[in-house]
Amino acid sequence: MNPIHSFRERLRQINHEAFQSPFPDLSHEMALSTQALRREFGDIATVPADPHGIESAVLAYLNTGQLNTFRDIKYICFGVSSPYGAESTRLIEHDVLFTDLLKTVEHLQQEPRKFRRCYQGLLKSYFNYRCYATELVTGGKNWLILRDLLAQHCQALAKQKPVMDWAQALYQHKNLLADAPCKPYAKALLAGDLKIVDELKNRLGVDDDTWVMDELVIAHVQASTDLKDPEFVQQIAPLIQLLDKHTLLITKGLALLLRRYEACVNRPEHHGLRDTALREWKSPWLEANKPMWHAQIGETATNMVKLWLTKQHIKDFFELLQADRQADTQRMEFWLQYAEAIEDFWLALGNFSFYNQQTDYKRIRKQMEGHCMRLEGSNQNYDNAFLMKIGNFVFIEFGKQNNACHVFSFNNLPFATGQTSVAGTQSGLKNTRHPGWQGKLSHFDGWQQEFAKSLLKYANAAPMENHAHQDPFSASKRISPSFSPSQNRKLTEESSRSNHQLKPIDLDKLREFCAMHNLHFDDHRNLGGAVWVRTSDKQATIADALRKTGFQYQQNKGWWLA
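The structure corresponding to this sequence follows.
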């Protein structure tokens, strides 16, 4: 038989026998082959399964400066951002050795598989290193150098054969290798679309503890600040909850929210912002804490939160800390009008409030830490005192309603505001013989108007603008019967002057002037207050015009004319 014919016949028999038999199940063999290929060409989610080997390679390099084998180079690339050794050294924070490593990796471009594997390790390290959280300049500089290297080769890797999904994903998300890396995702996050989070995790191996996840949160917060006021306000509560889950980001995220909220046209007290800021940064009233507040949100936003806290403490005192534990709404409403004028305040608590372990009492003492004293005296167990610095004077209200409000010169007090305890008697808060004592204001019928006159003349303090809608205080123009010329000469003289006629001012011209310069003004003269133009003294033209009209400037409040 012809040899060719014999070969052909043999092939026919083999094919016939093959198709007569069932095909074997090769799924197991295929899975093993896939794993082998991944080991060979690399999987972004896979770190070499030898953490001890990575640590040993990094420490050896830190000690010797030598890169002996490809295995060492590969392992070191995966470990450059991790802390190793007794001193928790990170290779990325070493100037010379890190630079030498990158040069060595770049020389591997002629061997694509090796270069790609080292690139993967460097990418994982890039994601893991929080450069913004380090105080080391070298670490931040090297992180940026690494970012540039990764960006430089990103496109080439995406086209390299065999095609790697992680390399293509990185090219699609190359914004991660640039400034504002997560800004492109902000709009989707704001809409509640979290698909991008899953994609970055699954395709790029981004872990929860990387800076990428941090940046996603900050991008979400930042995007909310670009919304209009109503939409932004709706986002605040869920964003605070989000920040609470990322403790390293609370300060930055909270600062963004508070600065934006301060810029809202209407900004009523926001309990979530207030309580979170107080928890994280402590009280802005304490001098030791002010630099932190001002550094994070500036003086204007800090004053906004201080005003919220002042209102809260006024409410706490006149609602919770009354001697009979019955809310005193009249006094509370009156002093809330002057919350903006209160420059500082202290509490003096009787034993019942000072040692009470109920939640509200513990909260008050914690919030007033450094501004809280114990009230001493034979009948002070259930009484409390609220000390308010307004201008250069301290006004002291007591929980027991039969007590008058005592007024002292702030620069001449019979006690120190920082002391641990103070007497609520004639030797302390009611020391009428002390040279710094100015008088007392009693809560008889019409007391609100007399208080308002004294506050205006003493401290130049007027009711806040958002209380201007309230009816004028009823009452006579007499001095409170508790005043006598001998005891209360200073208060009597000041109060008596309040009966003069209102200083004439052309409100139509003032309204036109304010409209021209986009300013706001309030007229509180019918409440015993002044006319206020709410602007700073930084614009020379406006300041000169107001000054020539007789207005005077008060820091953080504006220009006033009585």
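The mean pLDDT is 83.
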